[in-house]
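Module 6 notes. Inverse folding takes a fixed backbone as the condition and produces residue identities as the prediction. Think of it as a translation problem where the source language is geometry and the target language is the twenty amino acids. Below is one complete input and output pair. Work through it position by position during the lab.
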């Protein structure tokens, strides 16, 4: 199937939007798109889109299956404000994903007051953290797909030969380089991420040990010395 026609459907609060689902499928059919999978998130309060489990699963699926289109009902399904919508749409465009709005006449609730400054700062911080994690995951998935096509050994793969115990750098130089990058000092605060934080970010990006678990702080420490 043509990548430009494959699409996924995203609905927030699926149980309350079953009628919206029908309109989304009608939109897809009228515009020549084929919805191959549906994703949704329950209404669990004010959680930024890039933090929602359902949408993160959608993002990973699109990368693995080479899906370029995301169909959604209205802007309120994806974001809580115009600012968040702008950040999300730009990020997804960078990743080669196209958003298709079914009901452009439905906007944000005009009765919602502007977010306080501190809340806005927290929203930006959360979005930036998730953008970093998703970008890393995107790179990891792309690399693993290329390696799979070439038949190369990957760190957590099931194929390959055993030729003695190798260092992390020999097994996956990109993993070590990424760990070092995450350990760098923040130019604003002068602080470094902890080993535990690095392990969690690597795991979110698809890096794990041979058992499929996050790396331990001792393993991260050894990577940084290589």
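Target side of the pair, the amino acids:
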């Amino acid at each position: 199937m043509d990548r430009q026609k494959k699409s996924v459907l995203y609905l927030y609060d699926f149980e309350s939007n079953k009628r919206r689902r029908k309109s989304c499928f009608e939109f897809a059919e009228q515009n020549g798109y084929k919805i191959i999978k549906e994703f949704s998130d329950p209404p669990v309060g004010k959680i930024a889109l890039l933090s929602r489990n359902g949408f993160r699963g959608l993002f990973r699926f699109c990368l693995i299956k080479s899906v370029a289109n995301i169909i959604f009902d209205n802007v309120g399904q994806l974001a809580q404000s115009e600012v968040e919508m702008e950040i999300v749409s730009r990020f997804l465009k960078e990743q080669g994903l196209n958003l298709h709005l079914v009901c452009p006449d439905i906007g944000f609730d005009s009765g919602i007051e502007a977010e306080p400054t501190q809340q806005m700062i927290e929203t930006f911080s959360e979005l930036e953290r998730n953008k970093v994690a998703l970008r890393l995951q995107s790179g990891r998935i792309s690399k693993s797909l290329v390696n799979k096509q070439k038949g190369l050994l990957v760190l957590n793969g099931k194929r390959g030969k055993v030729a003695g115990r190798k260092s992390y750098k020999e097994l996956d130089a990109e993993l070590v380089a990424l760990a070092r990058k995450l350990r760098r000092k923040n130019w604003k605060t002068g602080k470094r991420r902890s080993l535990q934080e690095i392990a969690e970010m690597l795991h979110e990006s698809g890096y794990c040990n041979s058992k499929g678990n996050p790396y331990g702080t001792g393993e991260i420490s050894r990577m940084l010395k290589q």
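Reference fact for the lab report: Residues 108-121, 152-164 have pLDDT under 50 and may be disordered.
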